[in-house]
Specification:
By secondary structure, the chain is α+β, with helices and mostly antiparallel strands. It has a single domain, classed as Cytochrome p450, CATH 1.10.630. Strands 1-2-8-5-3 form a five-stranded mixed sheet, with helices on both faces. The protein has a three-stranded antiparallel sheet with strand order 4-10-9. Strands 6-7 form a two-stranded antiparallel sheet. Helix 7 crosses helix 11. The termini are far apart. The chain binds protoporphyrin IX containing FE (HEM). The site of protoporphyrin IX containing FE has 25 residues, from helix 5, helix 11 and helix 15.
Length: 419
């Protein structure tokens, strides 16, 4: 016997999702007093769920699949058409291995070194300016670092337009109208540029080092033994460059947290590595970034007496799970100490997805994100002194992705020490 799921009445609630943004699922989980409910989104019946148990079933590959789950507007902007996000089963595992092969300790150290060098150069530049808009400048700095790490040759005069294009891809996914088209055009441009580059790597005209994404992806073979087609290889190189630039959002929130919680800055000044890690985890938990992810029910099943029908569009609430009072004490309080004795949970703390890296779709770049944030935290604590003048530092819980309104303006930047 199965029960009927709590059900949101009405024709379609896409507008409510747009209006309530990060809080849409959490608001309804609270009012239905249920971690799962049925609604209608994007013109279809949809299930929304959140919390640790819901994440566990969402990441069970026997219950959910990703193929055909992403709306076209997402594929045309943030994901790309044939990227790892759209695969299931053995094809997914094989492609994911290609990404995870980049995440060795040596390769992550190489990235940290690049990021520190880029911060060093950035500090020189900033100290000669009256003021700096952090979000824009950090994006450019990360674009340079991402290209160096990925082995993508790029000249300094290409950096502005490439940064704008990579930014447009992730900022336009939830946008409508011209902003959405900006993302599509950006993707087309960068895919074309990278496809040509992949051909040159295959012809030996460009020789990126073996440990770089450009080299690995250009020479990677599918399960059928064939090279990836150039479009797919380009999509996957973008799957490295774009999200590294997007770490600028977490860095903006990291600087915001240092500003709003001066007592945290004092603790970080002691240089204790463990506390720095706890602080970074709390930034990733507390601030809004990815609201939710989508999958389709793979075959009929029953969970907690609720019936899930094959092919039903299902959303997992990432933000709401990171703010779930059943998992986090005072979830709306910024408190790095909550991570002091935290045992780790692949399903309860999911700012970049959950589950297993190889078997599921959990973010391939989680360690990259943490390493870049660590080097950046060190930079803002020990690398420079700066002032934050009065400005609108509030951030929206509706715009996706959310970024502090002023994009954080800093002034009087002075270099403290060399790395
Ligand atoms: C900026 C911070 C980041 C956030 C908030 C983030 C978030 C996410 C989320 C929510 C997913 C989807 C998980 C799922 O579908 O279950 C994902 C997947 C992915 N991310 Fe990230 N990510 C970030 C940074 C990165 C970085 C730096 C990289 C690469 C260097 C990266 C590469 C990927 C890839 C390749 C996937 C697809 C994995 C798969 O489908 O198996 N991400 N990320």
């Amino acid at each position: 016997m199965s029960n009927s799921m709590p059900h949101e009445e009405g024709m379609d609630h896409t507008l409510s999702l747009l209006r309530e943004g990060y809080m849409y699922i959490l608001n309804r989980r609270r009012s239905f007093n249920s971690d799962v409910f049925e609604t209608r989104l994007l013109g279809k019946k949809a299930i929304c769920m959140g919390g640790k148990e819901a994440a566990e079933i969402f990441y069970d590959p026997e219950k959910f699949k990703r193929e055909s789950s992403a709306p076209n507007r997402i594929k045309q902007t943030i994901f790309g058409k044939s990227g790892v996000q759209t695969l299931d089963g053995e094809d997914h595992k094989h492609r994911k291995e290609m990404f995870m092969s980049l995440m060795s300790p040596n390769n992550l150290n190489r990235l940290t070194k690049i990021v520190k060098e880029e911060w060093e150069t950035t500090a020189e530049k900033w100290s000669q300016k009256d003021q700096v808009i952090l979000y824009e400048e950090v994006q450019k700095m990360l674009c340079r670092a991402a290209c160096r790490w990925a082995g993508v040759p790029v000249s300094e005069d290409q950096i502005d337009s490439l940064t704008n294009d990579l930014e447009a891809m992730y900022e336009s996914a939830a946008a409508i109208g011209p902003d959405h088209w900006k993302g599509r055009n950006a993707r087309n441009r960068v895919e074309k540029w990278l496809q040509e580059m992949i051909n040159k790597v295959r012809d030996g005209e460009i020789q990126p080092p073996e440990e770089t994404a450009l080299h690995r992806f250009a020479s990677y073979r599918n399960l059928d033994g064939n090279l990836l087609d150039t479009e797919t290889a380009a999509v996957e190189v973008i799957n490295i460059l774009r999200p590294i630039v997007a770490i600028s959002i977490f860095i903006n929130f990291l600087v915001l947290a240092l500003h709003h919680y001066p007592e945290e800055r004092k603790k970080l000044e002691t240089g204790e590595e463990k506390y720095a890690e706890m602080f970074i985890q709390e930034v990733r938990r507390y601030y809004p970034f990815f609201p939710l992810i989508a999958a389709l029910v793979k075959k009929d099943f029953t969970w907690n007496n609720y019936q899930f029908e094959k092919d039903t569009l299902t959303f997992l609430d990432l933000y709401g799970t990171n703010h779930d009072p059943q998992l986090w004490e005072n979830p709306d309080v910024f408190n790095p100490n909550r991570f002091a004795d935290w045992g780790g949970s692949p399903f309860g703390f999911i700012p970049q997805g959950g589950g297993d890296y190889m078997m599921g779709h959990r973010c391939a770049g989680e360690w990259v994100t943490i390493e870049v944030m660590k080097a950046s935290l060190d930079f803002f604590i020990n690398g420079i002194n700066y002032d934050i003048p009065d400005q609108d530092l509030s951030y929206s819980m509706v715009s996706i992705p959310s970024i502090p309104n002023s994009k954080i303006m800093i002034q009087n930047v002075k270099k403290q020490r060399d790395y």
